[in-house]
Amino acid sequence: MIAQYLPPRDPRTIGWFSAGDWVTFLLIILSYVCLVKVVLPRYMTGRKEFNLRGIIRLYNLTLVFLNVYFCYNVAIHSYIGGGYSIFCEGLHVKSGDISIVQLHYQYMFVRIVEFLDTVFFVLRKKFNQASLLNISHHCIAVFLPWYGMSYGIDGQICLLSMVNMTVHVIMYSYYFLASFPSLRLYLYWKRYLTLLQIAQFVIIIAHMSIPLFYECGFPFQTALIIILMYIYFFVMFIKFYGSTYQTGISTASRQGSRRAQSPPSEIIFRGSTNKDSCAKGD
């Protein structure tokens, strides 16, 4: 029934795990939500919070390198070495080259690994940070590459991926550094990370709007879905920025002393319900 409103199935990913399989995708999402909202909170009842500082540092550093790797390789196969148009680029279903598709497929699993953001919150008994916004962000962050795997994930979407991966490199680097108490006084620029994320959303929305008005072979439905989801992130980040920085609640030192792990990045502001949260290694 829903198929009539979707683009044609991408033949390049037929047979790949979960690609085009709504049941598998929903099971992944429901398992994540059930884990962080039911199973782990019950497990932590009556237990002391875990000290995960070392694990979280390793986690943040690993994600820095993974995002550098994927951003570089997407760039090499698209705008730098693939002859892509920065203005508007359609899908390359008939080209025979599936390098970019494979990279995004692999990156989808990185997004699934990022479910650990919320898991770490719960294990550290920061239940308020396992918020609706945090959880919905992670669900959308997995949905987008999964949807792309199913209906086409090269072409116009590559700039989105590169911008987002670059922001992730900066964000996870910040969270890694903020886990060291001796460095927190120097990390006064957290508010600018939020502005960077907002700027990212504007760039992505603008760039993904081009296929809505200019025919270049990129699916209209895909562009529209991405735009709507990034508008959601844009609105929520604007609210977060206004409530946190325009009211004078947060200060650089307080931000650097309380962070843990959560976001959208879209990903990416971490700690949507904790205005002073910042360092993912506390």
Automatic annotation (TrEMBL):
It is a multi-pass membrane protein. Residues 255-264 have a biased composition (Polar residues). Its main location: membrane. GO terms for biological process: fatty acid elongation, monounsaturated fatty acid; fatty acid elongation, polyunsaturated fatty acid; fatty acid elongation, saturated fatty acid; sphingolipid biosynthetic process; very long-chain fatty acid biosynthetic process. It is found in: Membrane. Pfam families: ELO. It comes from the Eukaryota. It catalyses: a very-long-chain acyl-CoA + malonyl-CoA + H(+) = a very-long-chain 3-oxoacyl-CoA + CO2 + CoA. Keywords: Fatty acid biosynthesis, Fatty acid metabolism, Lipid biosynthesis, Lipid metabolism, Membrane, Transferase, Transmembrane, Transmembrane helix. Residues 255-282 are annotated as: Disordered. The keyword Transport does not apply. GO terms for cellular component: endoplasmic reticulum membrane. It is an enzyme of class 2 (transferase). The chain crosses the membrane at residues 22-40, 61-84, 104-123, 135-153, 159-180, 192-214, 220-241. Its EC number is 2.3.1.199. One of its GO terms (molecular function) is fatty acid elongase activity. Belongs to the ELO family. This is Elongation of very long chain fatty acids protein. It comes from Varroa destructor.
